[in-house]
């Protein structure tokens, strides 16, 4: 049996009882470590789960799935995913591969950014398409996410922006030379994401958002000690310090419910400024 198990958002105790029982029954336990991270080290997970964890990087999951699935017809194997198992398409690919090999698959769900984002005060059914904002380079600045934001705002819907992380990535030079030398991990901040949003906006004519658009910055969602949620304009959020990863950003839609307005007010960077924006942009 292949178990694909969601770990939740924060630490070792976020796992479900069902997930923990499945882990304890497994011969090998892999920890996916490139689409997201928990806020505790691997060693803390190993102590709590009572199992040694094998780090599964992008190369292993995408190119060496047979190694993960080895003997899964006769043994229990666990593949651990931060958040929920269906939060990244790579995990769907692994499931398809297992089923092609007639390996039974059991998915054990958990909380993810996709549902926990409601903690910011916006109602989940008022969100549109979720987008990912990648790190720009000097020669690569993909902007297809801009059109998704526009589609959401045309419908009045909020946009959850997932921010890029780079774990065990190679430089172009080392990749070209076949050198297994990896760059230090990088995690996109809310500030960097907003800078890139502004950069793309300057090249477009629609003006889907501006520096004065209402937005929400979220850091370390799910943490009981240092979760941060701040509401303000994109320009206000740009100057805020959100601390260590992981960060997410929400661009508030053009149609907002009064309960969302009241809830967000608790997180406003400047309540007077917030009230003025709400009156001007939403007539509330």
From TrEMBL:
UniProt GO BP: methylation; protein histidyl modification to diphthamide
Pfam family, one: TP_methylase
Catalytic activity entry: 2-[(3S)-amino-3-carboxypropyl]-L-histidyl-[translation elongation factor 2] + 4 S-adenosyl-L-methionine = diphthine methyl ester-[translation elongation factor 2] + 4 S-adenosyl-L-homocysteine + 3 H(+)
Keyword DNA-binding belongs to the record: no
Pathway, per record: Protein modification; peptidyl-diphthamide biosynthesis
Single annotated GO MF: diphthine methyl ester synthase activity
Binding annotation for S-adenosyl-L-methionine: 9, 84, 87, 112-113, 163, 221, 247
Keywords: Methyltransferase, S-adenosyl-L-methionine, Transferase
Taxonomy, superkingdom: Eukaryota
Domain (Tetrapyrrole methylase): residue spans on this chain: 1-237
Keyword Methyltransferase attached: yes
EC number: 2.1.1.314
Task of the protein: S-adenosyl-L-methionine-dependent methyltransferase that catalyzes four methylations of the modified target histidine residue in translation elongation factor 2 (EF-2), to form an intermediate called diphthine methyl ester. The four successive methylation reactions represent the second step of diphthamide biosynthesis.
UniProt family annotation: Belongs to the diphthine synthase family.
Entry protein name: diphthine methyl ester synthase
Species of origin: Gigaspora rosea
